[in-house]
Amino acid sequence: MKYYTKENFDPANSVGFALYRARNLVLGEMDTVLKDLDITGQQMGVILSMSSNIASNPFELSKLLDIDTGLMTRMLDKLEKLGILARVRSVEDRRMVNLELTDKGHHVAAEIRMRAPEVLNKRLEGFSTEEFLEFRRLLAKFLGA
Known about the structure:
InterPro entries: HTH_MarR-typ, WH-like_DNA-bd_sf, WH_DNA-bd_sf. The protein is mainly alpha-helical. It has a domain at 43-142: Arc Repressor Mutant, subunit A, CATH 1.10.10.10. It has helices at 15-34, 41-51, 58-65, 69-81, 103-123, 129-142; strands at 85-89, 97-101. Strand 1 (85-89) and strand 2 form a beta hairpin.
């Protein structure tokens, strides 16, 4: 079924616009609670992906977080400059660069894990348990999971 047509499409009331606004709201709120750590909500995704061993190189991170390689390189440069991660050449393939969190990076990841739930829980405060589970289910379905 087609929910949108050129006749009824109203960008301001579309699912895409709502998702875009929701993303920006959450990222802005994450930016605020992470400001003293000198990282952004977007950089948070890199740090948590690494600390959870979901991704360990720039390519994996780019693919997982759907971030183009140019932006990913700039983000990694900034995180490396902050002492949060280190680039390490692969022993098996010198062309490959792996990423490792530093001690500071592990500390920052732990701080994120304490702060991020507060931001998300505040956004979800009016949801019942059933609504929360349905929301997650529908998002997964929308994302094609």
